[in-house]
Design a protein that fits this description.
The complex is a heterodimer.
Chain A lengths: L3 E2 L5 E4 L4 E7 L7 E6 L6 E6 L3 E5 L2 E6 L4 E6 L8 E8 L6 E3 L3 E6 L1
Parallel strand pairs in A: 2-11
Antiparallel strand pairs in A: 1-3, 3-8, 4-5, 4-9, 6-7, 7-8, 9-10, 9-11
Chain B lengths: L3 E4 L2 E4 L5 E7 L5 E8 L3 E10 L2 E4 L7 E2 L9 E3 L8 E8 L6 E2 L3 E5 L1
Parallel strand pairs in B: 2-11
Antiparallel strand pairs in B: 1-3, 3-8, 4-5, 4-9, 5-6, 7-8, 9-10, 9-11
Classes of the chains: A mainly beta, B mainly beta.
Amino acid sequence: QKEVEQNSGPLSVPEGAIASLNCTYSDRVSQSFFWYRQYSGKSPELIMSIYSNGDKEDGRFTAQLNKASQYVSLLIRDSQPSDSATYLCAVDGGATNKLIFGTGTLLAVQP
Amino acid sequence: EAQVTQNPRYLITVTGKKLTVTCSQNMNHEYMSWYRQDPGLGLRQIYYSMNVEVTDKGDVPEGYKVSRKEKRNFPLILESPSPNQTSLYFCASGSGTDTQYFGPGTRLTVL
C-alpha cells in the first residue's frame, strides 16, 4: 500500500513566524508532489507543485523536495491568520495515474 | 468561469437506494477523479478516468461505479449504498495528475 504521511497537528504558530509542514511518502518511483490547502468546509486548492530535488519558491511559500529521503516540506513565511487551514500533501502513484493524499496537517496561525 | 460542479451538494438517503452524484467540468480536462474524505483518513481516491471510456480504480473503489461517456461528465454511482459510504465526496479534474481542480463537495448520509 503506497502511503503519504503527515503529522495531523494542530501546528500552532504566531503571526509573522515561519510555519514548517512535513510529508513523507513510501513509493520511490513517485515523480510529482503537491501541496493543497483546504479551508474548513471548503474544497482543496493547489498552492504548490514540485518535481525536482531542491527548493521551489512562490511568494511566501517554499516547497522542498528530497527524493533520496522521500521527504517533501512546505514552508510558509510571515504566516498570517488567513493561512490557518489544513494542508494536504499529495504524491503521484508512481507507475499508476493515481494521486495519493496524506491525511493533512491543521495549521493554526495565532494573531 | 472555469469550474467543476457537483450535484447534489447534500443528500440523505437510506440503505440500498441507488443514487448518482453528477460531476461536470468546463475546462476540457482529460483527467477526472472522485475522492471521499473522512475524518482521520484524509482524501482517498475512489475512481479516476484518463479520458472518455477510460476509467480505473483508485484506492477505495468497492461499492462504487463510474462512467465516462463524455469528456465533461463523470458521474459517481452507488448501486446499493450502505452506512459506511456516509462521507464527503469530491470530484476533481485536471490535465493529468497535475493541478487538480476540485468541485464544491457532496455530503452524503446513508441511514
